[in-house]
From TrEMBL:
UniProt main location, coarse: membrane
Signal peptide: none
Domain of life from the UniProt record: Eukaryota
Mode of membrane association: Multi-pass membrane protein
Keywords per UniProt: Membrane, Transmembrane, Transmembrane helix
Similarity annotation: Belongs to the L6 tetraspanin family.
A cellular-component GO term for this protein: membrane
Name of the featured protein: Transmembrane 4 L6 family member 1
Length: 202
C-alpha cells in the first residue's frame, strides 16, 4: 500500500470539502439572497461563529495542502536515505491532521448547535427571537412548526439545509483527517511505500 498516495487523495478531497463549507457558511448570511438581514444582524448567532469559513474551510486548507505535498516532502534525509525522509514527512502529517480534526470538529459542533436552537426569526407577534428554541430540536421532525417563523421567508428551510450541509461536510472532513492520522502513523512506521517498486509508483 502507498501511504503517500492515500494522503494525497485525502488532501484533494479536503480542498473541495473546505470550499463547500465556505460557500455554505456564506449563504447563511443571505437568506433568500437578501443582504439586509445580515446588515441588521437578524441572523442566528451561530452564523457569526464562522464554523464553515474558518473551521471547516480555511483551517482545513492547511492539512489539505500538507497532504497533497507529501510526494515532494523530504524533511529528514537521514544521510541520503530518501525513504527515511518520507517516513518523517508522513509522521509530521499527523500533526496537520490533528489541526484538521480540531477545525472539522468545531464546524460539526457549531452546526449541531445551530440546528438544535433553530433560526433567529420574527414570530407572529412581530418579535425577533429564537422562536423554535423551546422545541429542543424537535422542530426538525415536525415541519408544521416552521410556519411560526414569519420572516425571513423560508428561513427554517434555509438554516436547516445549510447547517445540515455544514454538519455533513464537517463530519466527512473529521473522518478523513482521522484516517490520515492512522495513515501517517503507518506510513512513518512502514515507510512511504512498503516496497521499493511501490515507492516508484507513488
Amino acid at each position: 500500500m502507498c501511504y503517500g498516495k492515500c494522503a494525497r487523495c485525502i488532501g484533494h478531497s479536503l480542498v473541495w470539502l473546505a470550499v463547500l463549507c465556505i460557500v455554505a457558511n456564506i449563504l447563511l448570511y443571505f437568506p433568500n439572497g437578501e443582504t439586509r438581514y445580515a446588515s441588521e444582524h437578524n441572523l442566528s448567532r451561530f452564523v457569526w461563529f464562522f464554523s464553515g469559513i474558518a473551521g471547516g474551510g480555511l483551517l482545513m486548507l492547511l492539512p489539505a495542502f500538507v497532504f497533497i505535498g507529501l510526494e515532494e516532502e523530504d524533511c529528514c534525509g537521514c544521510c541520503g536515505h530518501d525513504n527515511c525522509g518520507k517516513r518523517c514527512a508522513m509522521l509530521s502529517s499527523t500533526l496537520a491532521a490533528l489541526i484538521g480534526l480540531s477545525g472539522s470538529g468545531y464546524c460539526v459542533t457549531v452546526a449541531s448547535m445551530g440546528l438544535t436552537e433553530g433560526p433567529w426569526c420574527r414570530d407572529s407577534l412581530g418579535h425577533w427571537n429564537y422562536t423554535l428554541a423551546g422545541t429542543e430540536g424537535q422542530y426538525l421532525l415536525d415541519s408544521s412548526t416552521w410556519s411560526q417563523c414569519k420572516e425571513p421567508k423560508h428561513i427554517v428551510e434555509w438554516n436547516v439545509t445549510l447547517f445540515s450541509l455544514l454538519l455533513a461536510f464537517g463530519g466527512i472532513e473529521f473522518i478523513l483527517c482521522l484516517i490520515q492520522v492512522i495513515n501517517g502513523l503507518l506510513g512513518g512506521i512502514c515507510g512511504y511505500c512498503c516496497s521499493r517498486q511501490q515507492q516508484y509508483d507513488c
